[in-house]
Amino acid sequence: MMEVIPGFQMGDDGRVLGPVARAVVSRMEVEGHGTVRENLYDALRRSIIQGAIPDGEPMSDTWLAQELNVSRTPVRYAFNRLADEGLIEVRGHSGMVVKGVTLDDAKEIYTIRVRLESLASRRAMEWMSMAQFDQLGRLLQSIDHLYAEGCISEVIGAMGDFDRFIYQACEMPRLRDIIIQLEDYLRHFRIMGLSNPQRCGQAIHEHKAIYQAMVNHDSGLVDAMVAEHLDHSETYLLRIMSEGRP
Question: What's the pLDDT score for residue 97?
Fold first, then answer.
């Protein structure tokens, strides 16, 4: 039985009416931290980025507010922020329509990633202790084991752990703040790209190359390996997005 989120109400038959409302409730923080409007915005944003609310889906603040048993104010707040981000758009008298994540969005995010992840990896290389290098090495060994066992979903999660380790170790809190804003996109792209076993294996090899360059304290090679990894990731992602695969 689905848990009722604080500030929201299930329908009389035990379901939230409508696909948009169902997607939102399933992605709400169950603990109810934060304001209703922030939680609603986060859940809607995550739903759109992950494709749970498809491109072209009409959005009505009136309908959604009724289904979630909230006022229209937090819904309008969420819609305005999503429109500013380009995830939904106004289409004349037809109201709001989901735009989703486009090829241009993906290209922009990867351009940003190359700069941020190169910087984060170089800074982490300078700050990390031997114990931290050993910890990161053990994580890569764990990823190898999971991949050999065919546990692709677990590999995807562990690859995210690798990236977050670097962001934490770089000792640049503002860079981490920027990455946090992109995290929903990055998680979605990671799932799309690494669900293919061949691409997953290639990405593991690329992460090992990044790690080895960091161990050797070779800044130039770190930049080159990060750029190569992200170039391969972007190329694969854009191809499957163009083909319309999930």
Answer: 87
Q: Which residues of the chain have pLDDT under 50?
A: 1-9, 12-13, 15-16, 31
Cβ 105 vs Cβ 86: under 8 Å: yes
Q: Are 104 and 75 in contact (CB under 8 A)?
A: no
**Residues linked to residue 88 through DSSP beta bridges, in sequence order:** 98
Enter the tokens of residue 162: 């690798």
Strands (E) across the chain are located at 58-59, 88-90, 96-98
Q: Which residues make beta-bridge pairs with 98?
A: 88
Which residue, 208, 163, 209, 197, is CA-closest to 183? 163
- Give the pLDDT confidence score for residue 49 in this predicted structure: 83
Tokens encoding 157: 């999660």
State the CB neighbour count (10 A cutoff) for residue 190.
Answer: 19
Tell me how far CA of residue 25 lies from CA of 34, 152, 161, in angstroms: 15, 27, 26
Q: Are 158 and 207 in contact (CB under 8 A)?
A: no
Q: What is the DSSP string of 175-206?
A: HHHHHHHHHHHHHHHHHHHHTSHHHHHHHHHH
Q: Residue holding tokens 């981000």?
A: 85
Report the alpha-carbon angle 144-150-153, nearest 5: 90
Give the predicted TM-score (pTM) of the model.
Answer: 0.76
Distance of CA 176 to the CA centre of its chain: 14
Tell me the percentage of the chain whose pLDDT exceeds 90: 50
Predicted local confidence at residue 92, as pLDDT? 67
* Gap between the Cα atoms of 145 and 143, Å rounded: 5
Amino acid found at 236: Y
